Fold these 4 entries.
Entry 1:
Amino acid sequence: MAFARRFCASIAFASLAFSAGWAVSADQTIRLGTALSLSGKFAVSGTHTKNGYDLAVRKINDKGGVKIGGSAYALDVLYYDDESTPQRGTVLVERLIREDGVRFILGPYSALLTKAAVPVVEKHRIPMVEANGASRDVFSRGYKYLFAVLSTSDNYMIQVIDLAVAYAAKFGKAPNELTLAMATDDGPLAQDARWRACQRKRARR
C-alpha cells in the first residue's frame, strides 16, 4: 500500500519527473490499465482521453519514467473499450485487475462510467487516478482508492450565473427578474450542474 500511495503521488505530480532524466531498465515497467469509451456515445471524448493518457505516458517515459523509492519505472497502458456503458466498464475493470494483473487503474470518461468503476477498485484495493468523473457524488462516499485532480461538477455553473447577473445589471434588471433555462441529460454530472445553477440563482436573488 505504501508503494501504491507513492506511485499515485508520483502520477499526480508527474511534472516533477520531467526534469529528472533517470535511467530506466527494460524490466522496470509499470502497466496501467483503463476501460475507455472508444465507441458509443462518449467515443469522441473517450478518444481524446486516450490521446491525453498516451501523451502523458510518452512525456514521462521520455524523461526517464517515474521515480519511486529510489528506482525509476517506465509506464505502459493496457486499454479496453467500455462501449460507453457502465455495465461493460465494470466488467472490464474487473478483468484488468483479476485477469491482467493490473495494479493501477486510470479512470474512464464521464461521471457515469467513473461511478461504475470506483466500487470495483475499492473492492480490490487498487488505486485509480481519474480526471473525467466530476460528479460530487463520486467524492462524497469516503472512497479510499480514488485519486483525482479536477473541480467537481457542482461548481461548473457558478461563474455562468454570476456572469448572467452581471450582464442583467447592465440592462437595469435585478437577479430575481432573470429566467434560467437549461437543456441537459439526466446523468450525474448534468444533475450536479443543474442543482448548483438553481442554488446559485436563488442565492443571487
Entry 2:
Amino acid sequence: MKKNLLLFSLLSAVCVTSAHADLVAVRVGRAETVAKGVIEHAVIFVEDGKIVTIGEDLPIERGIPVVDKPEWTVMPGLVNCYSRLGADSEGGEDMSPDVKASDELWPQAEEYAEILKYGVTTLGIYPAGNGIPGLAVAVRTKAATKAEMILQDPAYLKVIVRADSSAKKRITDGFKKADEHDEKVKKAREKFDKDKEKKGSKKEEPKKDEPKKEEKPEEKKGVAQEPAVDDPKPDEKKDESKDGFVPPAADAKSKAFVDLRAKSLRALVCLNTAAEYLHWLDALGKEDILWDLRCVMSQDSDLFYVANKKEWDLDQDGIGDKKVHVVMEPRLTLTPGTMRTRNLALEFTNSGAKVVFIPRLDNVAEHKTWLAGVGEIVGAGLKRETALYAMTLGGAEVLGVEKRVGSLEKGKDANMVFLDGDPFEATTRIQAVMLDGKFVFGDVNQ
C-alpha cells in the first residue's frame, strides 16, 4: 500500500499537460548533485530553464520527451568565480571601489562560447587594476544581451593586499568614508526627528463650537480607500523607515564600504603570502564584514603558516579559523627551501576553510584542462566531494549566486555538464552541456 502511494505521489509531481510543453526528462547513470550527494540511475525533470525535480529511477509519464543516456554522468555546470575573460580594460587608480566590471561586458566575446564547451556555465568577471580596483560581476557564459548575461551585479569587491602601509591606508580610508556616510545619516535622522516634532507641536485642537466635518462616503470607517492617482507603485517607493525617514544615499566612493558593513556585499581579498594575510587582519581591525580570500599558489607559497591558529601558534585566527572561502589554483606546491610537496587545498580544507578552485591560468586552454588539473589534486588526497564543491557550489557562494547555480537541486537553473565517466579521470570527456535548460553543446541524439 505504501509503495503504491509513493508511486502515485511521484507520478503526480511530474504530471504533464499541454501547458507543460517545455518539460523534458533527462535520465543518466549517475548524478553528482554536490549538495545532496550522488544519485544513481538519476532522472532529472527540466522545465522553463529550471530543475523541476531530481531523484533515483523516477517514473516518466508518457508524452514527456526523454534524453536517455544511462552511460553518462551529470554534474552541475562549472563556476569560475575569478576571471578576466572577455574583458580588456587596463584598470586605473589604486582606489576605485566604484568601478564596475559589468560596464565592460561584451556578450559576443569568443572566449565565452569556447569555455561553455568545456562545461563552464557561470563566470565571475573582476575589474582590472591595483589596490582596490572595484566590483566584480557574475554572468552566464551565453546570452544575447548584457542584461541577460548578468546574474549578480555587484558580486564582490576586489581588494588587493600587500604587506605595506599604503595597502593598509586604502582599506582604512575606505571605512573612514563609510564613517562619514554614517555620520551624515545620523545628522539627517536628527533633523528629520526635530522637524517631525515641530510639526506635531503646531497641530491645533479643533474648536468645540466648530461644526464637525461631514465624512464623505468613501472616508467612513470600514470602507476601502482608493490610492491617490500620483501614489507611487510598491516597487517605486524609496528605501525608508516605518516613520517615513529616507536616509541619504552613499556617494560612489563610499558605497562599497557602506555595503560591506551592511553585509550586503562581500570582499574578495587577494594576497600571496602569510605576511600579507596577517597584514589584512591588522588593516581590517574590528570591522565585521563578509570576506573571502584569493590566494595565489606560487611554487614556494608559505600560506600554510597561517592555515590554522592552534597549529602555528598565531596571535590572530588562521585562514581555517575564519571559515572563509579560499579561491586558489589546483596546484601542488613545495615547502620553501625544500623539495617537500604540499597539498595546500587539502591543508586548508582540514583546517576548516572552504576551498574554491579556478583554472591555473586565465585563458581558454586552461579551462579545457581544468577538470583534469583538479583530478591531480584529488589523486594527491583531496576528497572527491570537496573537489566537486570547489568547482561548482563554492564559486557560486563567492559570487552570491548559490541559490541559482552550483548544484543539482529543485528550483535551480538547469546548468549541467554531461560526461562519459568520472569527472576527475584523465580519460573522461565532456559529451554535452546544458545552460538554462537548453543543450548548448553536444549531440544528445546519438
Entry 3:
Amino acid sequence: MPRPGHRIPAGVLDEPPRPLSSDAEEYLSYLAVERGRASSSISSYRRDLLAYEQFLEWRGRRLATVDSAAVRDYLGFLEASGLAASSRARALAAIRGLHAFVHAERGAPEDPTADVDGPRVPQGLPKALSEAEVARLLDAVRGDDPRALRDRAMLELLYATGARISEATGLDVRHLDLEARLVRLFGKGAKERIVPMGRPAAAALGRWLGEGGRSTFVASTRRRREDAAALFVSARGTRMSRQAAWTAVHRYAVASGLAEKVTPHVLRHSCATHLLDHGADIRVVQELLGHASITTTQIYTRVSQEHLQRAYVAAHPRASATRASGGASP
C-alpha cells in the first residue's frame, strides 16, 4: 500500500510542466527515428515522462541520481492517485525505456528499473461482436451518397482484414488490389503485411472508388499530394483522421443499437475471434493481424474457447450436473 509520504501537496503537479530533459528528448527521438514508433505512441510516452520528471523535480532528484526506491516511490504515488493498473504499467514501460536508454547510450552506472516489479494488470478478454451483430453494424450504413459509400467500404475493410483504424486511415489507393482482393497494410514500426479480403469488402471498396464515390469528395478541391493519394477522404478532400474514422464507426454503432459494445478495436477483435471460431490456424491469424508475438494472438483463442464452452454446455445432454443427475437412472 502507498505510504503517507506519497502524498504531494495540492497544486504542485498542476503547475505547467518544465520541458523534458535532454536525455528524455533524445530517447523520444530514438523511438521515432530508430524504432519507427507511431506519433500517438510518442505522445503517450511524452506525457508519461513529463509527469515522471516533474515528480522527480519535486522530490529533489535528477534523472542521473534515480535509484530503484525512487521509481517505486513514483509508482506508489500513481497508485495513491487512483491511476489504473494498466496506466501505471504503461508509465513504467516509458520509464524503463528511458532509463535503459540512458544506461546504454549515456553511460549511466545502472538501470534503476531493473529490479522494479510492475503492477499486475488483469488480462481482460477482447469484447468481440457476434457475427449477427457485425451484420447489424454493416447494415446500418444506408444509402448510396458518397459518405455512405465511404463508410460502408471502411467498415467492411476493418472487419475483413482486422486492420487497426490508424492502418486504414493511412492507406493510399495504390495499396489496394481489388482484382486479387489484397490490401497492403503498414502496422506498428512501419511493418508491412499483405492481407486478403472477402468479396463484400472488395465490392464495397470498388463502389467507393467508382463514379459518385471518392471522386465526388476530391473533384473540385485543391489538396496536398498526401491527400490526393488517400483511400479514405473527408468531404473536403483531405485524408480522414483516426478520430473522424471512429466518429463514423460510432455513428453506425448507435444506429444499430450497439453503441455500448463498439470500441475502437472491436472490429479487429471480431475479425480475429471469428477466424479462430471457423478453424483458422493461430499462426495465420497472427500474420494477418500483424502481431509481433504469438502471445498477443493467443488471447483470442481464450475468447473462442469460451464460445465453444458455452455452445457445448447449451447443446450437450450431459454437459451440466443438473442434466446429468436428472437423466441418470436411480
Entry 4:
Amino acid sequence: MIQVENLVKRYRRAERNAVDGIGFEVRAGEFFALLGPNGAGKTTTISILTTTLTPTAGTATIDGLDIVRHASEVRRRVGIIFQRPSLDRNLTGEENVRFHAVLYGVYPYAPTYRLMPAAYREQVGELAGIVGLGPEIFEPIRTYSGGMSRKLEIVRSLIHRPRVLFLDEPTSGLDSPSRRGLWAYLERVRRESNTTILLTTHYLEEAEQADRICIIDRGRVVSYGTPSEIKADLVEDYVLVDTRDRVELRAELGRLGLPYSGDGPFRVELDGRSTHAVLKAIDTPLSLVQTHTPSLEDAYLGIVGRAAEDEAGDAPIGEPTDA
C-alpha cells in the first residue's frame, strides 16, 4: 500500500537533509508506526507522503500511485490528522466536516445539516460519539479548546473512509477515555475495511500494538521490524538476583557459566534461557529475584541513544518540529 525508496528532503539553506535516504514499505491493512525523537524527520516524511511537500529525491507510492505524478489521486485515498490544527475557525465543527465530505465527493452538498443525507448525519453522529464530541459539534470552531479541535479533526479525517490513514500524534490533547475510544474504533475500521494506518506518536504504548515499526533519527532509518524484533535489536531479557552471601553467588555464577554483571545485585543475562531454568540452576539461597522483559520504550531509548553516539550533530535547519 505504501512503498518508500531512498526518500530525500533537503530544505533551502539547510546544512543537512531533513530526510536522508529512508526506505520502508507498508502492507495493505497494516498498522505501521513511525517513531523518532523531535527533529528526526517524521513530520517531513508524512508531509511528503500526503503530497503537501515535494521530495528532493527518491520515490514513494500510495496504493500504486506516485505521490508526485498522481498527487490528486493520492489525496483521495488518504486521510490525515496533522499535529497542527487545520480547521476553518469561521465555520462550525459540523460545517468543517460537511465541506470535507463534499470536497471528497462522498455526499452531495446541502446548505444545512438537516438537509444532508441520513447516512451522513448517522456517520457524523457515530464518529462524534466515539471521540466524545456532543452538541458542541454544531458550535463555531473559535469556541473550541485544543482537545475539542483535535477530536473534530479525527472526525473529519475519517468521514470519507480513506484507504490509508496518516495519524501524526493523533491522540495529543485527548483524555484517556477518548484515546481508548478512538483506538477501539480505528481497530474496528482496520478490521472491517482493511484500512492501512501509519502512525507517529510519543505514546509508545500505542506503538506497541503496531504490526511493524520504523525508527528514524536525523532523517535516517536506525531500526525497522516488528515490535519484538525492535526489542531484540538492542535490549536483552535478564533476571536480577541477590543474596546475603554475594561471594558464594558470584563464584556459583562463574561455575555455571552464566554471564552476569554488577557486584550485587547481579544482573544475569538470560541469553535465550528461561528464567525458570536459570533460577533452578542456582543453589545459593536468594534474597532478591526480579525478572526484566524489555519494553518498546527500553528498546526505543537504547536505539536512539546508540544512533546519537554514532553521529553527533544538530537537527537540520528548517526542519518542522515533531512535537
